[in-house]
Amino acid sequence: MLTDFMQMAIDQAKLAGVATYQNPQVGAVLVKDGHVLAQGYHHYFGGDHAEVDVLRQVTPEQARGATLFVTLEPCSHYGKTPPCSARIVAAGIRQVVIGQLDPHPIVGGKGRQYLLNHGVDVVTGCLTDKVRALNPHYNHFYVQQRPWITLKMAITLDGKINTETPTRTLVSNHASYIDSQCLRSQFQAILIGERTLTIDDPQLTVRLTAMVQPPVRLVVLNTSTVALNHRLVQDGQAPTWLLCRQAAASDDQLRNSPNVHVLIGNWTPAAISQLCVEQGWQSLLVEGGAHLQAEFVAAELIDEWVSYIAPMMIGGTGLPAVTGAAVMTPLTFEQPTVTCLGTNIRLRAVRKEV
Ligand code: AOF
Ligand code: ZN
């Protein structure tokens, strides 16, 4: 069955985890006379593509006349590696079964066309929903031309993130911490606001796994002065972009710190999203605080919601998770998943398509 082999290719693709970074996770399976000759995948950013990974496991004789199952349309360009479609034709592959076409404009149907022009039998679309789910951020970025935006918060049962005191209150448990580290690792940019920076002094790093390309850290500030003594401008652990509303004397000093960028502008959610497009950051995790979350809700720039809910209550004067700007018509979410993390609950849902 075509779907069985495509499922194997999907399973292969997943083996790479986040190592493919801005490239998609891609898997491939080579089949001849109903037998699997080789399975492979794109291991890491800049490495061989999945098609090349399978073809190098077989002899030229084995490859000739075989069928290649690949989750993503084979590429047609010279990037960090040569085009896979030409390699497939040169290997004498008879048929290619493609899970989904590549939404990246550099390929966008050209790989499939190249194969057809060279007499390869091409089947397009196989387990497409499952294949697309391998790379939700990548697909969203190139189809919608903006990053996938997730709002994340750790809240109490009554929707608070802190007591009145201007110090950090630990709301969620260790299991939530580990889960949120894993969530972070799947994003290319993380965003916080000024109050979160000053109250929490967060590092915004992924500490549970070593990452070759850690998410960039973005902070929206009034001026860069408040950032001076904070960990994310001092630790050099990942690039830090200070998105300031006004210029200040501290800007030049901070620009001299390794890995720190200072940009002055009117940093609305739309402007931040556009910065992500320009920098090629396909996904943005908004970690707070309350005003920043509200701005993204009001701008309707939100694709997913993740709450870690702790069995605590703070009451009326506690800080709410979202406050400030609002929409007239509520935004709705679908496909909820509820996960118990010890005494905490993770609620995750995606924005309902309008
Ligand atoms: C991958 N792995 O298995 C396939 C990809 O810079 P390059 O040369 O690695 O090219 C990256 C692009 O190639 C990527 O954005 C996607 O459009 C296409 N196909 N990429 O990284 C693969 N098949
Ligand atoms: Zn390729």
From TrEMBL:
Pathway: Cofactor biosynthesis; riboflavin biosynthesis; 5-amino-6-(D-ribitylamino)uracil from GTP: step 3/4; Cofactor biosynthesis; riboflavin biosynthesis; 5-amino-6-(D-ribitylamino)uracil from GTP: step 2/4. Its cofactor is Zn(2+). GO terms for molecular function: 5-amino-6-(5-phosphoribosylamino)uracil reductase activity; diaminohydroxyphosphoribosylaminopyrimidine deaminase activity. The keyword Metal-binding applies. It comes from the Bacteria. Keywords: Hydrolase, Metal-binding, Multifunctional enzyme, NADP, Oxidoreductase, Riboflavin biosynthesis, Zinc. InterPro entries: APOBEC/CMP_deaminase_Zn-bd, CMP_dCMP_dom, Cytidine_deaminase-like, DHFR-like_dom_sf, Eubact_RibD, RibDG_C, Riboflavin_Biosynth_HTPR. It holds the Pfam family RibD_C. SUPFAM superfamilies: Cytidine deaminase-like, Dihydrofolate reductase-like. It catalyses: 2,5-diamino-6-hydroxy-4-(5-phosphoribosylamino)-pyrimidine + H2O + H(+) = 5-amino-6-(5-phospho-D-ribosylamino)uracil + NH4(+); 5-amino-6-(5-phospho-D-ribitylamino)uracil + NADP(+) = 5-amino-6-(5-phospho-D-ribosylamino)uracil + NADPH + H(+). PROSITE patterns: CYT_DCMP_DEAMINASES_1 (PS00903), CYT_DCMP_DEAMINASES_2 (PS51747). Its EC number is 3.5.4.26, 1.1.1.193. The keyword Metal-binding applies. CDD domains: Riboflavin_deaminase-reductase. Binds 1 zinc ion. Residues 1-114 form the CMP/dCMP-type deaminase domain. Converts 2,5-diamino-6-(ribosylamino)-4(3h)-pyrimidinone 5'-phosphate into 5-amino-6-(ribosylamino)-2,4(1h,3h)-pyrimidinedione 5'-phosphate. PANTHER family: 2,5-DIAMINO-6-RIBOSYLAMINO-4(3H)-PYRIMIDINONE 5'-PHOSPHATE REDUCTASE, DIHYDROFOLATE REDUCTASE FAMILY PROTEIN (AFU_ORTHOLOGUE AFUA_8G06820). NCBIfam families: eubact_ribD (TIGR00326). In the C-terminal section; belongs to the HTP reductase family. In the N-terminal section; belongs to the cytidine and deoxycytidylate deaminase family. This is Riboflavin biosynthesis protein RibD. It comes from Lactiplantibacillus argentoratensis.
